[in-house]
Amino acid sequence: MNQWLDDRLHISRLNDKFLRKAFPVHHSFFLGEITLFSLIVLIITGILLALSYEPSNSPVVNSFDPGTRAEPNMIPAAYHSALKINAMPFGDMLRRIHHWMANIMVAAAVIHMMRVYFTGAFKKPREINWWIGMLLLIFAALTAVTGYILPYDNYAYNTVSVIYAIVKSVPWVGDWLAQAAFAGRFPGEGIIPRIYGYHIMLLPGILLALTGAHMLIMIKQKHTQPQYAKRIAYKKIVGVPLSTQQTPIMLLLVLLFTGLVVLFSAFIPVHPIEHYGPPSAQPISGIKPDWYLLWVFGALAIIPGFELEVLGGIISAEFVGAMVFPGLIIGAMFAVPMLDRAKDNQYYAENPTNHPVRLAAGVAFMAMMIVLSVAGYKVELVQSGLLPEASANTILWILTIGVPLVSYFATLGIVRGIRALREADERDALAHAHADD
Amino acid sequence: MTRYKKQDPEMTRRRFVNAAMGGAAAVGTLGLVSALGGAKPVLRITPDKAPPRAGDILVHATAAKEGQIIRPSEITDRVIQAWPMGKDQDGNDVIRKAEPNNLVGVQRFRKDSFKVPGEGEHVELKLEGIAEDGIVVYSNKCTHAGCSPENYAKDTSKLFCSCHSGLYDPLQGCKVIGGPPPRAMPQLPIKVEGDRLVVTETFVSAPFGFLNNLDWETYLQRVKEILG
Fold it and tell me: According to its record, how does it sit in the membrane (chain A) (predicted)?
């Protein structure tokens, strides 16, 4: 059969070009694979969910609790279909797998980016792939957010109303933008079909295209080589080939972590739509975005309220907190490869401690994200008495700036300590080596 | 490098391809922009989406009692969420809940405890819009991100929004006294007629969902044109 295929598709050339691609042997290189496999599982479970989902917010009679003929119990069709999915055999579990997998995908992508950042793998010639990776992260978050809205329960309803308000806060064009994005003034008749289009067509299409580009560039440029490759064979590609050695490892990995996620989904409920109920005037207290957007929420919670009128447009705290500030953060992440001015191509993953400033900046950045995420719990912190109400904002602002500064200098200090010890060791070894002579 | 420049009276292949690609890109962009223009639907205002209007009656908004008329006797200082209920073209009752920003909160305080804010505070409190026995109605959508404020645990005369900790004082025209909201939640002037609360005019200033009073006035104008 190989011969038959080879005559038609020239498998042997494909084999030489792609299937023999060398994969570095190091566990940190699995993070990108986990992200990719999560995307695949998400697409499969997403297709299964789409088969039973009804993308409409028109009111229908709740078949589980129809009410009376005179006063039927009307709920949005989307919410009704989500209830029906829950009632299907393993339907609730399918929703949970989809939900957990989305969280895992973002988490794996974030850790994958941290690996790339701390080992300097974003350097020339891999800047383009860093930027594509950033776009992937942004679009993954957008896809996740649109996914939250689809069950159209009260939680989704509250979430989308806040997102609508944020889009509307863009000066000058906000009103048009929000109405164009959400099919009219919130909540228009077309909001669920619109979001459905985004979530199952537009955004996954973008994600798949970007993923394809990400992969092809990675195959073309080869992986950065781990440090051991430098010792084994300098300037040679070291690793195990995709076919047949890496493939069973990949299969094992995907089966193992998908199994883990299925186990999660069996026992840990997520987003209980029955608990939140259909959209209503009743607000949900303590509503929070997912962990990867909590920092934006935290920034919104501690930014003082203001409204500035500039040339007929209104620049509000909402806009600055939810658009300008995250824009700056994302812009800084985009700029990372441009801060490196090396002319030579980067072949080997670097030891983070050899680049203390980069390491410390990364640690400080993450410290800031964590502090801002904690600030997202301001109301809870005040209510539990951990923060005084009058000065909660001030304290959180001081922490937002102070903690990253402290972690920056602490990291520099620790790295300096490690290097001093290492050099002392080398001196020792050298002195003893001489003594042996 | 070639020594001789090729003399070609006609368009070169490269120039043709470039021009064709440029033309295609321009047409494509134009098409995309016009398609995007269609993404924003036309504003359709139906009676269930109209803002509160004079003559509307306030009904319960909470799921358990939705649509029941609010009686003055059940109102305390605990905020009760309500929808305005008006009439459609055929004279049938219609609850205006398709526009979530129509959600209002009903409360009762002692009539003499209200304090009209000063000129410079940009807050309007119409005392004649407060019922004889101190029933006051405000929009129940926080002007920051549109969550619904509830009675503040530490001081029930205040309204607290748990989303980003906005704090309002209903005794002073619901002006902002804490947190990030940019504006007061506007008052909805009402009167008591028999056993029901009747709206006397729409929100005194822009509720949540409108950028400023100008935006709000323009919207009211549009509503008037469409619904008459």
Answer: Multi-pass membrane protein
